[in-house]
Amino acid sequence: MTDYCMLIGGERVPAEGGRTLPIMNPYTGEQVGTLPDASATDVDAAVAAARTAFDTVWSRTPGQARAELMLRLAAIYERRAGHLGDLESTDNGKLVSETRNQARFAARQLRFFAGYADKLYGRTIPMDNPDLFDYTRREPVGVAALITAWNSPMQLLANKLAPALAAGCTVVIKPSEHASMTTLELADMVQEAGFPDGVVNIVTGGVTCGAALTGHRGLDRISFTGSVPTGQAIMRAAAETLVPVTLELGGKSPNIVFEDADLDRAVIGALAGIFSAGGQTCIAGSRLLVQRSVYDTMVERVGARAGRIRLGDPFAPGTQMGPVANEPQQARIEAAIAAGVDAGARMVQGGPVGDDPALQRGLFVRPTVFADVDNHADLARREIFGPVLSIIPFETEEDAVALANDSEFGLASGIWTRDLSRAHRVAARLDAGTTWVNTYRVSGAQAPFGGTKKSGHGRERGEEALDEYLRTKNVMIDLAPTLADPFPLEEN
Questions:
Q1: Which end of the chain, N or C, is less packed with Cβ atoms under 10 Å?
Q2: Mean of the pLDDT values across residues 292-318?
Q3: Is 248 a catalytic residue?
């Protein structure tokens, strides 16, 4: 049992009144610790600490010094990658091999953005009047709230924290109450790296904490990753304070297989796109669009391979898919599967976990494949956020594009083809923030990431992410020896 404290102004503190929430292991069903359930007063203190640190220290810290601190933090992430991965797998049930890699990817992002910290260049602007000297400055927006989801806390936080620190912002971080441990561990890490008190603040808790933070008038930016309904609620709250918001929300991403594709590769991509991390990723390729001439082959092969995915302990070397992260999510996934069956969808793979003793305690859902799904059915429209794949046939390239774009979401997409011209042609027409060709679910610190439509707006990772935490100031200087007087005095 680990009883965590929050980080506010450099101090490790409990929630007001000592309120806590349990930390549950989704594989064993056991409680492994507690996290503070912060009040509005706690959030006020965290925002005030961030503001003080911004005004007095961090906004005046040279970019090179910020970069050095970020590089120290990156080294700590790498050194602690094993421990952090173990904690995250305990917290949300993801395979430990993936969570350890996500700790290392957090280090990669810190290093990438540290390189920008002393390169936030402005520009000089030629004016019509030669006596005017005009230039711009790129300045940090101020205090940023960074709010992450439970599926990949370390990676999602790194998406936000690295560019925010490089830009010169101070932050108040709120992880999901369903997966907070690695974020709370960050408190020790930033202090070990030597960050000034108040630059990084961490609050945890449920609805009260989240509402107090997203509606706070002391913020200058909110960055949120999570569900569409919560994103909409944050937008409504931010409308009152006029705080700009970056949203990375859900997806119902199309993964398109053309008849000329390398089908061996496409099968692997289809499986990786939806069943990696138990389908609990916003970029999950949950709609597999397959050209009619290879449709039956893909359905058979994907279904057969899905049935052989090994479920079990996320720490066991042979496990290929762990439990889902929490009980509410398991219930939502199972309800979506049952509704699909009731609506007459053809289940190719799936069904109850059964009496396997290794799966009795955990929150497991079998990899589930539906074929012949109509693109207007709930299975194809609603984000399930679990290991549920809908396979949809199409006839022509035009059909594929139309089906892919016929969605409220626009986060990610995939194309499988040997035709280079088709790959570029279709990629240009897909309404999605990311399009992979002959691969899926690959990321890089350098590559911008974000969505369109109900998948949100703004970008994370890549140089574009800095723009979320910077604002442009214009400075204009009159160099003329005299100033034209618009109100000249008349001589008598």
A1: C
A2: 96
A3: yes
Measured CA to CA, the distance from residue 99 to residue 277 in angstroms comes to 10
Task: Supply angle C-alpha 154, 87, 176, rounded to 5.
Answer: 50
What pLDDT score was predicted for residue 357? 81
Cα–Cα distance measured from residue 238 to residue 244, given in angstroms and rounded to the nearest whole number:
7
Give the pair of three-digit tokens for residue 417.
């083809």
The structure's pTM equals 0.95
Size of the chain, expressed as the number of residues it contains: 492
Q: Residue 332 belongs to what H/E stretch?
A: helix 327-342
- Given the residues 248, 383, 460, 468, select the one marked as catalytic: 248
Q: What is the pLDDT of residues 239-255, one digit of tens each?
A: 999 999 999 999 999 99
Residue 220 pLDDT greater than 90, yes or no: yes
Percent of the chain having pLDDT more than 90? 96
Alpha helices in 4-128 (DSSP H): 40-56, 63-79, 81-92, 96-114
* Helix, strand, coil shares, percent, the chain, to 5: 40, 20, 40
Pick the closest to residue 389 from 305, 450, 326 (CA basis): 305
Backbone φ and ψ for 280, nearest 5 degrees, come out as: -95, 55
Distance (Å, whole) CA 185 – CA 199: 16
DSSP 51-81: HHHHHHTGGGS-HHHHHHHHHHHHHHHHHTH
Q: Residue 492: what pLDDT?
A: 65
Query: Is 234 in a helix, a strand, or coil?
Result: helix
CB 54 within 8 A of CB 170: yes
Token reading at 472: 């442009």
Q: Judge contact between 281 and 252, C-beta under 8 A.
A: no
d(CA 120, CA 78): 26
In the numeric block, the tokens 């139309």 are attached to 402
Examine the pLDDT at 52 and tell me if it is beyond 90.
yes
Is residue 491 predicted with pLDDT exceeding 80?
Answer: no
Do residues 153 and 93 touch, judged by C-beta distance below 8 A? no
Residue 254 to residues 179, 251, 386, 430: CA-CA distances in angstroms? 28, 9, 15, 9
Q: Domain map of the chain by residue range?
A: 2-249+455-476, 254-437
Beta 287-291 vs 412-416: how paired, if at all?
unpaired
- The CA distance from 279 to 151, in Å, is 10
Collapse the DSSP code of 2 into the 3-class scheme (helix H, G, I; strand E, B; otherwise coil) and give the result: strand
**Architecture per CATH, 2-249+455-476:** 3-Layer(aba) Sandwich (3.40)
Q: Which CATH superfamily is domain 254-437 in?
A: Aldehyde Dehydrogenase; Chain A, domain 2 (3.40.309.10)
| Cβ neighbours, 10 Å, residue 427 | 14
